[in-house]
Every structure is written in C-alpha cells, then in structure tokens.
What we know:
Blueprint: H1 2-11, H2 13-19, H3 21-32, E1 40-44, H4 50-54, E2 61-66, H5 69-74, E3 81-85, H6 91-94, E4 102-106, H7 115-122, E5 129-134, H8 140-146, H9 155-162, E6 166-178, H10 182-192, H11 203-212, E7 217-229
Parallel strand pairs: 1-2, 1-4, 2-3, 4-5
Antiparallel strand pairs: 5-7, 6-7
Amino acid sequence: MIAKHIHEFSKNAYRYDTHNALQQSIADYLIAGITSKAARVVDLGCGSGAVCKRLTWCYERFVGIDSAPSMCALHPKGDAIKVVCDDFESQAVLQTFLPCDLLISSSALQWANDLEALLSYVASGTQEIAFAIFTDRTFQTLYDLSGLPSFLPNARGLMETIERSFTCRFEIRTFRLFFEDNLSLFRYIKQSGVSGGQKRLSVAQTKHLIQNYPQRHLEFEVLFVWGVPSKA
C-alpha cells in the first residue's frame, strides 16, 4: 500500500498545493495547538512543505523527511532547513536527526507500516509531538455506498497506540470539502493523494458512484495529537 501512496503523491506533486487546501488547513490547526517554540524540528512526511511554511517561530534546524522525490523538490530550502528524501520510518534515517525538540507530522502517519514501532523508537528522542492523522471515517459516505472497507486507521486504535509511548491531548475534527458537481468531487479524490492511490472499483462501478453520489461534499475525519513522551 505504501508504494501506491508514494506514487500518487509524487505523480501529482505540481497539482498538490492547488488541490490540497484541506491539508494546508490541517497543518495550520496542528501548529496552532503547539505552545512551545522548538529549536530542533523534525517533520515526518513533510511533502511540499506545508508545516515548514507555517511555523511562526525561528528555529535552529528543521528536517523534513518524505519518500516522494518530486514532493521533496518543492519543499522550501535554506541554511536551517534540510530535506531528506527517504522513508520516515527508517531508524537509520531517524537516528541521524534525533534527538529533536519537536517531532511533527501532518497528514502522513496514516501511511505508516508500523506506527507503534515508529513511536516506540522516537519516544526517547523528542521532547514533544504534534500529529494530524486521517482516520477511517474519511470518505465515509463513499465507502458506505461502495461497500468497500476503508484502508485508513481507526481513531480509537490510533489513540491507544500513541498512548503506549506518549501522554497526549487528542482532538477529533471533521472537515467537509464542497464541490460544484460530482465529477469535480471524484477528480479531487484522485488528485489529492488522500485516496492513497487505491483503485479497487471497476470503471462501471466508479461511473455509477459519480452519477449517483448523494451529496456535493466529501467528509474527512482527522485525529489531532499534541503530547510529550510518557515517563518510564
């Protein structure tokens, strides 16, 4: 699944900012919940730089890690900014940039192959976390109508996993994105990358959904997490 996801983001990199105002709003809300001014920041799944562009304080070092080369190419660069095109779950990659003061991730950790192992590893290497993660209630109407299961993680399961390594404040927010017509709505799913590159409906099934989708919006559920490592 992760390879399909990377292909989807990379293929649509130059349309990403145009079609992903939602991800930008999520990054804004996530950063607004951070009260510290971390000097050393590591961004997991940095994409084209939504987090980096929105940090309001001066930092000593910002490291963005993302597996999609064309997304990394769009990320801001600078003396204090390093962009690493690699797997953000790789301990070999992470150990180079830990410890840090803030580990942040906006709209990326839903793609983790082993989130529990990742969090267990980084817990001793950061002072603070801030995450925004899409949950399985994203595109809920679409999945209800198609009968397909969501490939995204459940919010309760995510919270249980994160709490094994961190003491956190959680917030679940639902976003709705409205469209002029159903065709525009389905084009968004393809262009945004949120779909993860999944293509599990036939052409006929997809056409039927486009023609009969009952609303002009898509729903997105996002789990926001702010926390610190749990004491041993």
